[in-house]
Amino acid sequence: MTRRGLQLLIAAATLATATPAGAERLITSVSTYRVLINSTFTGTELVLFGAIELDENSAARPNGYGVVVTVRGPAGSFTTRRKERLLGLWVNTDSRQFVDVPSYLAVLTNRPLAELGPPDQLRRLRIGLVNNTLTQRVGSDFADVVPQDPIRAAFIRVKTNEGLFREQTTGVTFLTPTLFRATVPMPGISPIGGYEVETMLLADGNLLARERTAIEVVKTGLEFSLAQAAHEDRLVYGLATALLALATGLAGSLLFGRD
Amino acid sequence: MPIYLPIAELPVNALLILGLGVAVGFISGMFGVGGGFLMTPLLILTGIPPAVAVASVPSHMAASSFSGAISYWRKRLVDFGLGFVLLSGALLGTAVGVWFFGLLRRYGQLDLVVELSYLIMLGIVGSLMLVESASAMIRSYRGAPAYVRRPGTHAWFHRLPLKVRFRQSRIYVSALPVMVIGFVVGFLGAIMGVGGGFLLIPALIYFMRVPTTVSVATSLFLTLITMLVATVLHAVENRTVDVMLAFILMTGGVLGAQFGVRAGQAVRAEHLRLLLAILVVAVGLRVGIDLVTAPADPYSVITTENIE
């Protein structure tokens, strides 16, 4: 008991004198840096491994570590609309534009958000779906609004239902006290482009270390060739599709049309 | 059987898409309508982005209408003269419609206008056809001669100049009202994202007194040309034609269309018109119900398009 008490005391003393960043180092690695999409792609899982490296200066963390893995997909612009009853018809009456917001957003943690730190700290570090920046066009200006805003909340809800936004407080599991794993599900509709993977290590509400890496989702093989043709040789692509339609129609008529 | 669509950028069940192609192709062959008014909303329902659905459906309609048109052409039922006059009006109408489409998009009320025009057009056309075909059936049930053509009656537009004899259709009318019909079909087609067969066939049957089979065959011919043009235009302008999606749809479409054409010929003309009327009214009602019932979630999110 005395030994443990002594340790705590030393830890407290070290904390008081050491820089708030702490002495832990964070090393992460993802299972793949390039998600390849071929014609049978229906979604995949990205696995992230992380190791916490301690040295002699490392303080004991009696409350354990908090780990947050945030994956942000390529920026996109979206319009969120609200329907209202007008003259008996349900029509879109209000809309808000979200500009350059993540088209994919996954937040995985090893414990409930409230246990990771005080709310203002979570907001500052952009931890959790509601605390990520979702810029809206406000008149001629661009700004994020309060998390309670109904349209902002609806945007997160719709994206979550689509499987593109997710928040999992059990998404990070510790294999040993200093080794953890996070599994990031990527659905088939995951947007093409570059993704940012940010891993944060916290203890008692303080950020100890932060590690960033990038992955990309790209089309390959036939998917790539067709998409490239559609963008670069538009007329040829269009004419080829039209010819394909004629050929298919003719083939159908030749095969079945004998009467 | 999942397959990833390269332009829509999502995986779909290939068998489901093929099934949709067969079903809509069958209806297309049977009634001579392109089926766009069914296919486009169905694809959007399966999660395909509207821009991709609207741009890819025309090639499916081209394939199944070509397959259907060949069958009718073999039977010498396509009135090419009538088709080309309609086409000249339709192309002009499409151009004006595409411009109007952009205007509505800028004012943010495109969805409402599209839904209302579906409701109004399908409702009116469907109801008129329903009443007419039902009364024709009652007439034939009572043993009275079942005819629609009244060669003696002359509407006001029969006095217009530029009269042309359309041999296959057995009509002798001014080219002007024919072009106007083509224009209206092209205009509404561009706004509603449909081929317009469901408007064209009734217009030809009821206003122009063209025989039902010739109307159907000529409408297929017109659909073929306009949809081929639409495919190329969408590919060049919007780059949202998904050839993989289109190919699955058209394979199913030609299969369905072949059986549809046969089914259409096996059914009596007024029954065929009644069935088409019921279908048109049903789709119109569906849109109407959607407009008046409270949505599950009043909020929706769409990807913002860049409007130049």
Features:
heterodimer; A: alpha+beta; four-stranded antiparallel β-sheet; B: 308 residues; mainly alpha; two-stranded antiparallel sheet; 70% helix; globular
Write a short abstract of this structure.
With 259 residues, chain A is of the alpha+beta class. Chain A has helices spanning 2-17, 119-124, 150-162, 221-232, 234-256; strands at residues 25-30, 34-37, 43-53, 66-72, 75-86, 89-102, 105-109, 136-138, 141-143, 165-168, 172-176, 179-187, 193-203, 206-219.
Write the layout of secondary structure elements.
The complex is a heterodimer of chains A (259) and B (308).
Chain A: H1 2-17, E1 25-30, E2 34-37, E3 43-53, E4 66-72, E5 75-86, E6 89-102, E7 105-109, H2 119-124, E8 136-138, E9 141-143, H3 150-162, E10 165-168, E11 172-176, E12 179-187, E13 193-203, E14 206-219, H4 221-232, H5 234-256
Helix pairs in contact in A: 4-5
Chain B: E1 2-5, E2 10-13, H1 14-31, H2 36-45, H3 50-74, H4 80-106, H5 110-141, E3 163-166, E4 171-174, H6 175-192, H7 197-207, H8 212-237, H9 243-266, H10 269-292, E5 299-303
Antiparallel strand pairs in B: 1-2, 3-4
Helix pairs in contact in B: 1-2, 1-3, 1-9, 2-3, 3-8, 3-9, 4-6, 4-8, 5-10, 7-8
Categorize the overall geometry of chain A: globular
Structural class label of chain A: alpha+beta
Task: Give the overall pLDDT of chain B as a whole number.
Answer: 80
CA-to-CA gap between the ends of chain A?
96 Å
Largest sheet of chain B: 2 strands, antiparallel
Query: What fraction strand of chain A?
Result: 35-45%
Order of strands side by side in the largest beta sheet of chain A?
2-14-13-4-7-10
The helix-strand sequence of chain A is: HEEEEEEEHEEHEEEEEHH
Chain-averaged pLDDT of chain A: 86
- The helix content of chain A, as a percent range, equals 25-40%
Assess the beta-strand content of chain B as a share of residues: 5-15%
- Which pair of chains forms the biggest interface, and how many residues does each contribute? A-B, 63 and 61 residues
Unreliable stretches of chain A (pLDDT < 50, length at least 5) are 8-21
How many individual helices of chain B? 10
The strands making up the biggest β-sheet of chain B line up spatially as 1-2
**Rg over CA atoms of chain A:** 25 Å
Largest sheet geometry of chain A: 6 strands, mixed
Helix content of chain B: 55-70%
Number of helices of chain A: 5
Give the assembly state of these chains: heterodimer
User: Could you say which structural class the secondary elements and strand pairing of chain B correspond to?
Assistant: mainly alpha
